[in-house]
């Protein structure tokens, strides 16, 4: 029986795993995810063949490693899942890691690379910590399986110097790696490839403005198939607001917020050096601070339940509109399409309509019926532009970070054998 490849996407509040057959083209064997680790009880979503279900998890899962172990066990013990009955059936584990510093490519994990990645943990403690804890766990508990890490930041290594450099003391900036990195790159490369194919254009001639908007939200300007700017920065906090993140604010706000802000947060461990300010801006801001909910589907409604919900919606539209205007100019108006992706981008017709209405001056227009319908389950890219529109296409892309990790691992494996 061919071995499988396991792709892992660990977030601060969720862990998703997918098993694929190690063959070309790959076939999904099973998909499992735990969400709500930080807001118990956690929920399990499991899909294997036609079997699909969702359940509340009774066990206590305090960390992403607990969730990962639970998911593995759940898959290995499923009598219908004979293709992955134990670790012996796994050839590679591909881990999505948000911050890869200066790494341009995927990295195979060994003592040296793991040490280098540890050095990056402070730059994205909220994201990298959980992913690397799972990498470490795999190294100890599944020592025979090769782990490869794929970085969200790698796609943005093409961002020009004047865009990625912060105007601060450059010696300090270089010594501490303080620059714009940008994230969601695994998703952007999947979207770029899918959209270029949909538009029947070579990737290296494709110009797009892509939004990956979910609980974490960012936007990217792609020129000739390369990232030339993105809204996230040194960390995933910069740019657009999100479920619990403030997005860009005046940095001085930190010093006026509370006098506790600069101290280590009570949630900080000896390995996660998070200040109260980082904790507030990353975990206690965004939709949660404005409305009490982190669920944008309760905010993006025709009749918002409160003024605060309406304000949260309007803030999001305003910030995205600002980036679209700026990126349109950066791309010299030579734009093939504007693409919506991520949980909100793929599911909220209301957000798409409100935003495109505000960008009409760029020639963007949508077909309301196509927009309301959104993409079908198996439809990766859907065109929702108004038929008569001569402007750039408006598209929805159902992104898939897991499959992208798999494809890269497959590519690495093929090029080595
Ligand atoms: N119909 C909808 N309308 C608006 N927002 C939605 C809808 N469905 C899901 N969402 C939002 O999508 C978010 C999840 O997006 P996703 O990209 O999956 O998140 P993550 O950043 O955790 O990977 C949810 O928090 C929810 O707010
Ligand atoms: C980079 C980032 O913000 O990731 P996520 O949206 O999964 O939190
Ligand atoms: Mg995500």
TrEMBL record:
Superkingdom field: Eukaryota
GO terms of biological process kind: acetate metabolic process; acetyl-CoA biosynthetic process
Statement: the UniProt record of this protein carries the keyword Magnesium: yes
Known EC number: 2.7.2.1
Organism from which the protein derives: Penicillium cf. viridicatum
Active site per UniProt: 152
UniProt KW keywords: ATP-binding, Kinase, Magnesium, Metal-binding, Nucleotide-binding, Transferase
Signal peptide: none
Chain segments annotated as coiled-coil in the UniProt record: none
Residues bound to Mg(2+): 9, 401
Residues marked Transition state stabilizer (site): 184, 245
Pfam families named in the record: Acetate_kinase (PF00871)
Binding site residues for substrate: 96
Enzyme class, spelled out: transferase
Family stated for the protein in its record: Belongs to the acetokinase family.
Matching PANTHER family: ACETATE KINASE, ACETATE KINASE-RELATED
Catalytic reaction list: acetate + ATP = acetyl phosphate + ADP
Binding positions (ATP): 16, 212-216
Entry GO MF terms: acetate kinase activity; ATP binding; magnesium ion binding
InterPro entries: Ac/propionate_kinase, Aliphatic_acid_kin_short-chain, Aliphatic_acid_kinase_CS, ATPase_NBD
Full protein name: Probable acetate kinase
């Amino acid at each position: 029986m061919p071995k499988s490849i396991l792709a892992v996407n660990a977030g601060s509040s969720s862990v998703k795993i997918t098993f694929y057959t190690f063959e070309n083209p790959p076939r999904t064997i099973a998909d499992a995810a735990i969400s709500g680790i930080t807001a118990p009880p956690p929920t399990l979503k499991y899909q294997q063949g036609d079997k699909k279900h969702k359940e509340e998890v009774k066990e206590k899962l305090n960390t992403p490693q607990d969730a990962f172990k639970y998911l593995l066990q759940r898959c290995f013990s499923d009598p219908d899942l004979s293709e992955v009955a134990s670790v012996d059936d796994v050839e590679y584990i591909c881990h999505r890691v948000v911050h890869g510093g200066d790494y341009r490519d995927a990295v195979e994990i060994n003592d040296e690379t793991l040490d280098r990645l540890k050095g990056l943990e402070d730059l994205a403690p909220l994201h990298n910590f959980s992913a690397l804890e799972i990498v470490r766990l795999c190294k100890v508990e599944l020592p025979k399986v090769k782990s490869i890490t794929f970085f969200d930041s790698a796609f943005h290594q093409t961002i020009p110097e004047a865009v990625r450099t912060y105007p601060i003391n450059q010696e300090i900036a270089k010594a501490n790696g303080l620059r714009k990195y940008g994230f969601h790159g695994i998703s952007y490369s999947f979207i770029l490839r899918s959209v270029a194919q949909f538009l029947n254009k070579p990737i290296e001639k494709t110009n797009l403005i892509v939004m990956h908007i979910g609980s974490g939200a960012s936007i990217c300007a792609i020129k000739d198939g390369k990232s030339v700017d993105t809204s996230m920065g040194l960390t995933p906090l910069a740019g657009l607001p999100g479920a619990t993140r403030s997005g860009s604010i005046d940095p001085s706000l930190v010093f006026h917020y509370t006098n506790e802000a600069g101290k280590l947060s009570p949630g900080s461990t000896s390995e996660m050096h998070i200040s109260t300010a980082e904790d507030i801006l990353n975990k206690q801001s965004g939709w949660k601070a404005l409305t009490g909910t982190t669920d944008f589907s309760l905010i993006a409604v025709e009749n918002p339940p409160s003024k605060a919900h309406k304000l949260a919606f309007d803030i999001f539209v305003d910030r995205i509109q600002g980036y679209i205007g700026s990126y349109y100019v950066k791309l010299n108006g030579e734009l093939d399409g504007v693409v919506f992706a991520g949980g909100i981008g793929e599911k909220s017709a209301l957000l798409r309509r409100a935003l495109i209405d505000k960008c009409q001056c760029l020639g963007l227009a949508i077909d309301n019926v196509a927009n309301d319908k959104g993409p079908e389950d198996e439809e990766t890219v859907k065109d929702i532009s108004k038929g008569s529109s001569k402007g750039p296409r408006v598209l929805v892309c159902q992104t898939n970070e897991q499959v992208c990790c798999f494809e890269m691992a497959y590519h690495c494996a093929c090029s080595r054998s």
